[in-house]
Amino acid sequence: MNKKFQWDFWAWITLLSIVIFGLFLIYPLFSLFLSAFQDATTGAFTMENFTHFFERKYYYQSMINSFSVTACVTVLAVVVGTALAYFMTLFKVRGKGIVEICIIISLLSPPFIGAYSWILIGGRSGILTQWLAGMGIEFPSIYGFAGILLVLTLKLYPFIYLYVAGAMKNIDSALIEAAESLGCSGIKKVVTIMLPLITPTILAGALMVFMNAMADFGTPMLIGEGFNVMPVMIYSEFINEVGDQANFAAAMAAIMVLITSTIFMLQKYVVNKKSFTMSSLRPLPVGEMKGIKNVVMHLCIYLLVALSMIPQLVVIYTSFLKTNGAIFVDGYSLDSYRTIFGSLGTAISNTYIFSTAAMAVIVFLGMTVAYLTTRKKSWLTDIIDTLTMFPYIIPGSVLGITLLLAFNDDPMLLSGTALIIIISLVIRRLPYTLRSSSAILYQLSPSLEEASISLGASPLKTFFKVTAVMMLPGVMSGAIISWITAINELSSSVILFTGATKTMSVAIYTEVIRASYGTAAALSTILTITTITAMVIFFKVSGRRDVTL
Amino acid sequence: MSVAITADKVVKRYGDLTIIPQLTQNIKNGEFFTLLGPSGCGKTTLLRMIAGFNSIEGGQIRFNDQVINDIPAHKRNIGMVFQSYAIFPHLTVRENVEYGLKLRNMPKDEMKTKVDKILDVVQITEYQDRLPERLSGGQQQRVALARAIVIHPSVLLMDEPLSNLDAKLRVEMRSAIREVQKQVGITTVYVTHDQEEALAISDRIAVMKKGVIQQTGTPHTIYTRPYNVFVATFIGHSNLFKGRIEEANGGKAVVFADGFVLPMSTIGEEGKIGDDVTIAVRPEEFSICGEGHGIKCKIKTKVFLGKYITYGLDFPDDMLVPDQPAIEYSQDLGHAEKVLEIGDTVYLKPNAAKINVFRADGSKSLMEGVVENE
After folding, report:
1. What range does the domain containing A39 cover?
2. Cβ of A445 and B147 within 8 Å?
3. Residues A390-404 pLDDT 10s
């Protein structure tokens, strides 16, 4: 065996992944940053776009808004998620299984459905608002900062819950017993042992929450009203047909990517310094809460779950209401469903086709590229490994804009095609599948592959007959989660779609903007049911009761 | 089917680091050949070069007359048994064994006969439809062996196959492996760091250190006539004494540092009168004798092991080669005239026919007829 280069399957995969990430991620991102430094009319180099942003309160306020709301959401989600994980793991909670399923459903449901149904409940003409108004009570406004905070916290605390509950299951009870034997008890035990043990996990979860909250477009767009945040600002500047605002939008996008990457690096640095691995021989014992404390604990947990589930339930309920045009009237009907299957049928089929196509590509690339970067290490695969980190820090709307800008002209005219939407889905989700595939590969002993080769199978045959077969269950369960996020994806699709490539989430968004709540509810119901079905399949495939995203 | 293997000036390098500098060794057709050495000595590296999982940076490896340097692993027709067994967890026992045969497009009925036969040979017929995770370590080992042998490989390569088993099963499995190997008559290269296992199982052993073969020979030769001090101390225990060759009654004798003279008839040409030497005495090569008939020492420790009692001995420092972990005398309880106690002073006589004499630096044996490569 010599080290001469061979133009084999793996060389093709290397080339393919470099082309995909280079062409659809690096090149567009680079041209975006470049256009951020260009004058809109002359194309000359300028800092004008950035100074423009920092000179006007209208613009830089959106950055302050983004920061403040994201920080508040992160803190709240961490508090709520950690507390929930603490009680759910250490105490007997009635209906624990159902509570967990509900939490996962609310995590995986389309992000903006929360915003939209809270408007249905507490908006100007919301159910609750009108009911209270009938009794002469004025309901506080749900729009703006408070609304975003409410919706995003309810949407994102499950991240923290799943992370922390997972980490707490890995705490060996001997650690706690050791603390007790040394004379440590009660609250001190929690603060000096438990909390430090789960801190890296909390930080990792907090990053997920921060990134999601920062990048979220649908929620602030619907419920934010005057409260402008960056993704909304970028979107509206970009979509703005009046004047040439693309360069300015690019500058804002660049600022945003700078912020997210800074946070990302900071978190990496902190976690690397504090990380350790735990494996538990004997998990912590489950205790029982007594008396009034027990009642309060159950009430809090049920209230939280109810709040998380209300959006789904409201949406499903309103989807069966009778409508007259855009207005709800008394009685029930299936009109909304008739309407969407008539006029928005392609949106439904598009959603399934795009996300399934994306999933197929993700599974194939995820397995092969993970194999490259773990088993065939070279400087080239190291580059690929680094490239695949990028999508973590690029908000969906920014990715959408970069793709649109880069592929708007011949010879690479892709805008308006289904392909560009599928590509954006692949780019956004591939990194997650890659990480999990690599993790699986590290668990597989290379001697399994060597055994196959020694028995006469070529390395490529070995990959498909042995390695891939053993990776598949793990990869598939990850792919189902990717599929769920793909069908619910809004922030990049809303920029990339055209009439023919509309997806369900985009259709919901446009219907809500048109105040056509009945059809939006019907579409959301279909999405929710699809999500739950896919989740059931996920649990069957993976044999697990938890989700990693 | 089975082949002889020749390693001819083989070199293994990782970047600037040379793991194996110019190693030459032949392995005979049908032989059970063991590579033995401490961890990091390059034995597994060499095995994986034969298998084709490690590249060869210099020299040649040949199967009979065919140079295999550039033949990819999957075309070398080797059978390999791994330390971790590497049983495919998604296939049943039978499917694991069939795997290699299917790749060779063997007709169904012929395959069935072969698989049935090999399952019977390694005694796992009753588990053939189970998934590997439901097998014990020993049973998994048998599957790995069957899977490797059933394809009728040119050579069978085994990389520490028994190291994950418990002590009792290890002994049982090593005779099973030996038996199957003889039955099939296949050239086998076996890697281990366990000297007892190597002695029990091999036709010939190559003792390796830092990528260099120190000695190749039968288990008996390696133990009784080690080529150098490393082999003498790595295989079993040897107590090392400083000494000199002198003339006695017209023949040769070794003189210990305390003046005790032991006439020897086994020293070869190379051991000249007046040479400083290192004398290696195994714990069981001492016998208790009267004052003046042996070397004087004190009993420091005593460990009762059933069949033997092992005493730790205290000698004056200038009698010994420095930096030895322990100086021991094993007393066979079957022939023990009297049991010694800690603190006793005793005279011990080395068995002149059995002990070994080396150059003072320990690099080479001075005994008659000892060769590096047997």
Report:
1. 20-45+320-549
2. no
3. 888 888 888 888 888
d(C-alpha A255, C-alpha A414), whole Å: 26
Q: Is residue A407 a contact partner of residue A413, using CB atoms and an 8 Å limit? A: yes
Q: How far is B191 from chain A (nearest CA, A)?
A: 15
Query: What pLDDT sits at residue B338?
Result: 79
Task: For chain A, say whether B73 makes contact (Cβ under 8 Å).
Answer: yes
Do residues A367 and A499 both lie within one domain? Answer: yes
A458 C-beta neighbours (distance < 10 Å), count: 17
A5 confidence band (pLDDT: 50, 70, 90): low
Domains in chain A, number: 2
Give me the domains of chain B, ranges plus CATH numbers. Answer: 5-224 (3.40.50.300), 229-359 (no CATH)
Residue B82 forms contact with A (CB below 8 Å): yes
Q: What beta strand segments (E) does B89-197 contain?
A: 155-159, 187-192
Question: How close does chain A come to B122, measured CA to CA in Å?
Answer: 18
Same domain assignment for residues A163 and A75: yes
Is B72 an interface residue toward A (CB < 8 Å)?
yes
Q: The CATH number of the domain where A276 resides is what?
A: 1.10.3720.10
- C-alpha B352/C-alpha B65 separation (Å) is 45
- Interface contact flag, B147 A451, Cβ < 8 Å: yes
Helix (H, G, I), strand (E, B) or coil at B11: strand
Query: Quick one: tokens of A244?
Result: 């040439």
Rg (CA), chain A: 25
Whether residue A134 is contained in a domain is answered as: no
Same domain, A511 and A414: yes
Q: Is residue A3 part of a domain?
A: no
Q: Best mutation site among A6, A444, A454 for testing chain B: the one with the most B CBs within 10 Å? A: A454
CA distances (Å), A41 to each of A31, A350, B126, in order? 16, 37, 81
Q: Helices marked H in A26-144 — which ranges?
A: 27-36, 48-55, 57-90, 96-108, 111-122, 127-134
Domain boundary residue among A310, A341, A364?
A310
Per the CB < 8 Å rule, is A450 touching B100? Answer: no
Q: Is B78 on the interface with A (CB under 8 A)?
A: yes
| ipTM of this complex | 0.81
pLDDT digits (tens, 9 = 90+) for A400-434: 888 888 888 777 788 788 999 999 999 988 888 88
| Same structural domain, A293 and A429 | no
User: Last residue of some domain: A253, A278, A310?
Assistant: A310
Give how far Cα B256 sits from Cα of A149, B167, B225, B291, B331, Å: 90, 40, 20, 15, 22
Q: Are residues A542 and A430 in the same domain?
A: yes
Tell me the pLDDT tens digit for each residue of A215-226. Answer: 888 889 888 888
Confirm whether A151 is domain-assigned: no
